[in-house]
User: Which sequence fits this backbone?
């Protein structure tokens, strides 16, 4: 049960990131979250939309694992997509913002532990 809730919450987080990056990239609040000027947001709009799409794929995979059953048939799917999120979070923390370690990598690590523990 805990694993399923964690995987679902991580999926929702990535859907939220999709919305920010694909549709709200130039909004003042989104720019504040990502620490960008209006000019930089305008220049990176297409790149951000592409990143948002990838976050959507991560969310889709996690939702698929919930649908299959995170602790049963969807276990391997959940672990694969959680590992993808973890790696992306670690890379993002090293290259973009340390905050990504706490927003993305840590939750996925907890999700992996919960799935592996059968919680």
Assistant:
């Amino acid at each position: 049960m805990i694993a399923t809730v964690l995987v679902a919450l991580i999926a929702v987080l990535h859907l939220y990131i999709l919305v920010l990056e694909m549709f709200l990239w130039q909004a003042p609040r989104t720019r504040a979250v990502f620490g960008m000027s209006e000019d930089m947001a305008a220049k990176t709009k297409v790149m951000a939309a592409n990143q948002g799409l990838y976050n959507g794929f991560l969310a889709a995979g996690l939702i698929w694992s919930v649908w299959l059953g995170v602790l049963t048939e969807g276990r391997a799917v959940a672990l694969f997509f959680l590992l993808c999120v973890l790696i992306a979070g670690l890379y993002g923390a090293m290259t973009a913002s340390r905050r990504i370690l706490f927003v993305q990598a840590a939750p996925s690590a907890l999700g992996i532990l919960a799935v592996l523990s059968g919680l």
About this structure: The first helix runs from residue 2 to 22. The CA atoms of residues 20 and 30 lie 6 Å apart.
